Amino acid sequence: MKNIFDIKNKVIVVTGATGVLAGAAAKYLASQGANVVFLGRREEKLQEAVAAAKKSGSDAMYCVCDVLDKSSLEKANEAILAKYGRIDVLINGAGGNMPGATITPDKTFFDLDFAQWQAVLSLNLGGTVLPTLVFGKSFERQKKGVVINFSSMSSTQALTRVMGYSNAKAGVDNLTRWLAVEFAKKFGSGVRVNALAPGFFISDQNRALLTNPDGSYTERGNDVIKKTPFGKFGVAEDLFGTIHFLASDASAFLTGTVIPVDGGFSCFSGV
Ligand SMILES: NC(=O)c1ccc[n+]([C@@H]2O[C@H](COP(=O)([O-])OP(=O)(O)OC[C@H]3O[C@@H](n4cnc5c(N)ncnc54)[C@H](O)[C@@H]3O)[C@@H](O)[C@H]2O)c1
């Protein structure tokens, strides 16, 4: 019987590929035989990531580009198509937060830095739309392809502090459903769009908010753990199975979904 989870030789383009979560996922996919294209802004980090991926036998490559700079994405697209001739999967992993788009406990909504709010919206939502506009053209042509977006626990419940980020990730959820319908209706059932919503994973962006220098949890860290039935933070490996599933034919009838990978955070009332 055919292995429906087989991703060998699939061309998988990953933005934010030197980051904690998408970076680890990109290396995992390479270890499973995919031809992974690492996209990021810093060449040195990309070179390291590709060298690691090649050790597992993957025919990986990298392109330096910014998810908000269309011409850099177009150049990357040309290089990818010149090497592989097609793209099978796009993982929109680039994203993040900015201090001015956050309302800390000593501030109120009226202290919001509107320019930073716009910048966070632009990075998380625009930075998902623009790569899909460029790399998704292959899916239109092939009538086959997969988009995997990164949502967050903040997209459906009000998570204190992170206002701009929450607004943007709610947009990513909506975009996931909207594009799923648009692509299915115009290009057929071979083109799918889904997202995963990671729970709380320690990364460079939230480490100081969730943990103290001695590794113990901050008050917010403890609050998160209390609302997570598994009683722990996620580690990047926890995302691999869901990403692999979404990238493979095993999820062939799945589109427009946002899958929580959260140790139960989203299903628990907290009481
Ligand atoms: N860590 C968590 O708990 C968590 C939870 C839910 C969702 N997420 C989402 O998962 C994704 C990965 O996050 P992470 O935790 O690995 O963070 P990370 O900061 O390690 O990775 C994000 C990557 O995006 C890159 N990036 C930022 N702006 C960019 C730009 N303009 N162009 C190109 N690349 C750019 C960064 O350089 C970084 O490599 C993000 O979308 C994030 O919002 C993270």
UniProtKB/TrEMBL annotation:
SUPFAM superfamilies assigned: NAD(P)-binding Rossmann-fold domains
Keywords: Oxidoreductase
Pfam family name, one: adh_short_C2
PROSITE patterns: ADH_SHORT (PS00061)
Ranges where the Ketoreductase domain occurs: 10-181
Family as reported in the entry's similarity comment: Belongs to the short-chain dehydrogenases/reductases (SDR) family.
Name this protein carries in UniProt: SDR family oxidoreductase
Lineage: Bacteria, Pseudomonadati, Verrucomicrobiota, Opitutia, Opitutales
